[in-house]
Amino acid sequence: MNVPLLAVMLLADGRFPAGGHAHSVGVESAVADGRVRDEASLEEFVAARLATTGLTDASLAVATAHRLGSAASEDDVRCVLLAVDAEADARIPVAVSRQASRRLGRQLGRAAARCWPAGELAELAGLFPDGAHQSVVFGCVGVAAGASLEDIAALVVHHTLTTPAQAGVRLLGLDPFGVAALVSRLHRMGTAVASDAVRFATSALADLPAGSVPLLDIEATRHAGWDVRLFAT
């Protein structure tokens, strides 16, 4: 097993302090209004996120890594990071979701910089003291860890699948074995999404996917106003 693969496995480990455990990415609201109530409805929820925001985030991460790979100077690195982060920002229509993405990006970047000190991560921290978007940081971390574009896409897909799935276990008391099985059933779809993201690597930034789920965008704002909630999103 090579070092880059080990690095990706570490990033995908739920114990890596990247902050995702504190987010349900909309599951908490969906449970409250009855849209997610069991394993079957949770699987539908996760699949919908994977096909929309999952593809978008994976494509942004891979596009970041691809462009950083050909950056010839620090100025080029800065231009790449600023450009892709602006594209990520434009694809998150709700302010609370943009803030959450940047908080997650900041935490991921800080943790990764301790594991793989790299110029890209230092540049990222300097450009975005409040955090770059998480998808952009995933791309930077992938470059720092020596991961391939395929591995970076797979990592983002893994995050897209497991974050709402673990929230379903905690919110509904679902059987963790059953939830693991539903994540496994989405493997083929996840593989296709990761492959599509890699194909977008050389596309113009404006042509990257911009999938979203309007109902979740609306619910994100409502959820932020709850007096009591288990998850940040």
Commentary on this structure:
- The chain has a single domain (3-9, 23-221), classed as Urease accessory protein UreF (Orthogonal Bundle), CATH 1.10.4190.
- Helix content is 70%, strand content 0%.
- The protein has eleven helices and no strands.
- The chain is globular, with a radius of gyration of 17 Å.
- The mean pLDDT is 92.
Largest sheet: none
CATH architectural designation: Orthogonal Bundle
Quick one: overall form? globular
Helical percentage: over 70%
Brief write-up:
The protein is mainly alpha-helical and about 230 residues long. About 70% of the residues lie in helices and about 0% in strands. The protein starts with a helix and ends in a 9-residue tail after the last helix.
